[in-house]
Amino acid sequence: MRGKTKKVLEYLQTNGSITQLQAWELFRASRLSSIVFNLKKYGYSIISKKENFTDINGEKSYYVRYIYEGEVIE
To answer: Which pLDDT score, from 0 to 100, does residue 2 have?
Structure first.
């Protein structure tokens, strides 16, 4: 495992969850769903949860938060 995948895993293990916006801001990772897919193939347990919000135009939308189900390191 290398690069952004490793950084995302370490972030998940420390913080418990991550969103696409966080992945972009922290690691410039534009394909978080692909990274999570690969982490699942490596055997890590990660679930996705839709979180609703209202955008600046008043439109309802959602984003996905990926939640690490392993032990969180503090």
So the answer is: 83
| Cβ atoms of residues 33 and 15 within 8 Å | no
Look up residue 20 and give its two tokens. Answer: 């696409």
| pTM above threshold 0.90 | no
1.10.10.10, 3.40.50.10490, 1.20.120.530, 2.60.120.260: CATH of 3-68: 1.10.10.10
**Predicted confidence band of residue 1 (pLDDT cuts 50, 70, 90):** confident
Helices within the chain (DSSP H only):
3-15, 20-27, 32-41
Return all residues near 56 (Cβ < 8 A) that are at least 6 apart: none
